[in-house]
Design brief:
The complex is a heterodimer of chains A (320) and B (354). With 320 residues, chain A is mostly helical. Chain A has a single domain (3-302), classed as Orthogonal Bundle (ABC transporter involved in vitamin B12 uptake, BtuC). Chain A has 12 helices and no strands. In chain A, helix 2 runs antiparallel to helix 3, helix 2 packs parallel to helix 4 (98-121) and helix 6 (157-175) packs antiparallel against helix 11. Chain A is globular, with a radius of gyration of 20 Å. Chain B has 2 domains: 33-143 and 278-301, 3-Layer(aba) Sandwich (Rossmann fold); 145-274 and 318-353, 3-Layer(aba) Sandwich (Rossmann fold). Chain B has helices at residues 2-19, 54-68, 88-97, 111-120, 145-159, 174-190, 207-219, 232-245, 277-289, 319-333, 343-353; strands at 40-43, 77-80, 102-105, 126-129, 138-143, 164-169, 195-200, 224-228, 251-256, 269-275, 298-301, 308-310. Chain B is globular and about 60 Å long. Classes of the chains: A mainly alpha (320), B alpha/beta (354). Chains A and B meet through helix 1, helix 3, helix 4, helix 9 and helix 11 of A and helix 1, helix 7 and helix 8 of B.
């Protein structure tokens, strides 16, 4: 196996497994940049996965065909935002502890999704969907030497969408008035309030957007990787996204990079056992590689990760 | 206003945690006046009796047993569902207190709990599926997965066009090793030139890992992959479907039950290795009713007892392959072929074959 073959095996795989994490991590960026901790990403992603599986299944029944995964993405975003509104009400309007509320979201999502699955399908899991997002080569771009084979062959469209959304989020947060307001609310809400920014409204938008993106991440996971929803479909991916967001220093492009890094580390750890040269390394080392690489990167390369200043504190008008 | 809103949110969140426990709430009805005294029950793990897998199969076996012996549901035979690992012990205890003559724990996850309960309640009769624990009042039900895996290994060896097949395991353990070695022996018997790629995901619930392993295997030229990896195996199906859509001729061999449905609509399931938990539950219930409770023993269900086998959906398997599967099934039952379970036994098997 040549070096190119090895890269062609690892790089596309890294991009594939990173896509759901990218969406969810971007959601986290919106919420936390506005000053609201969102531990609930896991639950929001889980519920998105459930909604995704259900919508695709019924989309198939209704004859939507190949469009049903895309319809499910939209539905999962809407439902994700609605679901996140519980977190928003509890932590913004009622000033509840944001971590506790987020944990509650995780419990609620897990319980509700399984309960509804049982009610709808009379089974512990949804049926396996047949309309999926499939791997394909991107026309023209995949013909570029070297790069084409690595980045534009044998990949999901949703992966490019994830990168594209990351760029949009970056643009929105750093180049638009809304982004400036969102960030200012997360850093110093009182100052923002004095300047006439509606803190509550801005934070609501941040949390709802995080719900929408996390829901999308879950639906993408179902449509491209797992193919159905069970109680074990989303186990920890939301927390990995949360880690990717912190790893990426609450910056959209940082989160994108971190999610891709996680994907790459995992791909190396899995494919490593079949790659000449790497396969002589004891398997244990390859298995722990993603975690060791993450610790090294966090401790050595990234440096201090500064959270938004007002993260975790509810805003009370007039309080000093 | 705020207070009301707060109450609403609290109510919703509480409802969520309670909802998870719903589904079936048939608690503690004591039996009275059955025709027969014998009562049998089971505790599911978190999957529930409609998980299309282990628990469902066990419940089907128990239901059949109940019907055949005209027992009433929820009186003569019943199940309790566990929503979390912490439910196992209370569920087992509650059934014992309701004087069920035999209580099954479904799945190896319940192993330690069954062992503890058996120690605390020496008069109770318990059975555990897929695991061996200590205690004279526990019947240990295991399956000869290696024998079933041998059969699907034959199929893979004979139908592989590239002479390369793969095995994806969940977690490297004694149990999954049985699948691996049986499969490898089957492939070797059918096609000595074939190479078997083996990899463990070290996780039963990570579809993306399964997908990546399958990707690596197929890329290296394997055309059939046998998975014994639960939810991780869903990723193997995903990868195979993607490749079949792009015109590659690749297959997956399913596990535990007939996974034909998982392979649709691209039709990538070649065949499956099924474990007949229903058969085992039925059998042990019958023995216990007849006063022959196999306590403290290990009861292994193999090809002979119809405890493992090849799936009923066989449209993708060639005629002559099916015939030789039948031949070998007979040979295994007659003891002519001894299928290896462990790595050491496999090496021995390999040496003897040459």
């Amino acid at each position: 196996m040549s070096f190119m073959d090895i890269l062609a095996l690892i790089v596309p795989a890294a991009i594939v497994s990173a896509a759901p994490l990218i969406f969810t991590a971007l959601g986290g960026v919106f919420s936390e940049r506005s000053g609201v901790v969102n531990i609930g990403l896991e639950g929001l992603m889980l519920f998105g996965a459930f909604i995704g599986a259900v919508t695709i299944y019924y989309g198939e029944q209704l004859g939507l065909g190949g469009a049903s995964p895309w319809v499910s993405f939209v539905v999962a975003m809407i439902v994700g935002a609605l679901f996140a509104s519980i977190h928003a009400v509890a932590s913004i309007s009622l000033k509840a502890d944001q971590v506790v509320s987020g944990v509650a979201i995780n419990f609620l999502a897990a319980g509700l999704a399984i309960f509804l699955t049982k009610k709808i399908f009379n089974a512990g899991q949804t049926p396996v969907i047949s309309e999926r997002i499939s791997k394909s080569d991107i026309p023209f771009l995949s013909d570029i030497p070297v790069i084409g084979k690595l980045f534009f062959s044998n990949a999901y469209l949703t992966s490019y969408l994830a990168v594209f959304v990351a760029l949009i989020v970056w643009y929105v947060l750093y180049k638009t008035p809304f982004g400036l307001r969102l960030r200012s609310v997360g850093e110093h809400p009182m100052a923002a309030d004095t300047m006439g920014i509606n803190v509550t409204k801005t934070r609501y938008i941040g949390v709802l957007l995080s719900g929408a993106l996390a829901g999308l991440g879950g639906a993408v996971y179902v449509a491209s990787i797992s193919g159905n929803f069970t109680h074990s479909t989303i186990t920890g991916q939301g927390f990995m996204a949360l880690a990717a967001m912190i790893f990426g220093k609450w910056h959209p492009l940082g989160a994108l990079g971190a999610a891709l890094f996680f994907g790459l580390a995992q791909a190396i750890s899995i494919s490593g056992t079949q790659i000449p040269g790497l396969q002589d390394i004891p398997k244990v080392f390859l298995l722990i590689a993603p975690y060791v690489l993450t610790i090294l990167a966090l401790a050595g390369l990234v440096g201090r990760a500064d959270a938004p200043k007002a993260l975790g504190t509810p805003y009370e008008k007039g309080k000093r | 206003m705020k207070k009301k809103l707060g109450l609403m949110v609290t109510a919703m969140l509480t409802a969520g945690t309670i909802l998870a426990g719903c589904g079936n709430n048939d608690d503690g009805k004591t039996s009275g006046g059955d025709k027969k005294d014998f009562k049998v029950a089971m505790v599911t793990d978190t999957g529930g009796v409609d998980d299309k897998s282990f628990n469902q199969s066990a419940w089907e076996g128990l239901t059949k047993f109940g019907k055949d012996n005209s027992l009433a549901e929820n009186k003569g035979y019943k199940y309790l569902q566990s929503t979390a690992q912490s439910d196992y012990k209370p569920n087992l205890n509650s059934l014992i207190r309701q004087k069920y003559d035999l209580v099954f724990g479904i799945g190896f996850l319940m192993g330690t709990d069954v062992e503890t309960v058996a120690k605390q309640q020496p008069d109770a009769k318990l059975a555990i599926v897929d695991m061996v624990v200590k205690g004279d009042n526990v019947a240990n039900i295991t399956f000869a997965e290696h024998e079933g895996s041998f059969l699907v290994g034959l199929v893979a060896g004979m139908q592989s066009k590239t002479n390369k097949v793969g095995f994806v395991g969940g977690v490297n353990s004694e149990l999954i090793k049985k699948f691996e070695n049986g499969f490898k022996a089957g492939v070797l018997t059918a096609n000595p030139d074939a190479e078997v790629l083996v990899q463990y995901a070290e996780d039963f619930n990570k579809a993306e890992k399964g997908q990546q392993i399958a990707n690596t295997f197929y890329q290296q030229g394997a055309d059939i992959i046998y998975h014994a990896a639960g939810g991780t195996g869903m990723g193997v199906f995903t990868e195979a479907k993607n490749r079949k859509k792009n015109g590659e001729n690749v297959w997956v061999i399913g596990v535990d039950r007939d996974q034909h449905e998982e392979g649709m609509p691209e039709n990538v399931t070649l065949t499956s290795m099924v474990k007949r938990v229903d058969q085992a539950v039925y059998e042990v219930s019958e023995q216990t009713m007849a006063g022959k409770f196999p306590g403290g023993k290990v009861v292994e269900f193999g090809l002979k007892q119809d405890g493992v086998g090849i799936a009923p959906t066989q449209e993708n398997v060639k005629e002559d392959v099916l015939k030789s599967v039948e031949d070998y099934k007979k040979k295994i039952i007659d003891g002519e072929v001894k299928v290896p379970k462990t790595d050491a036994e496999y090496e021995e098997f390999k040496a003897n074959l040459k």
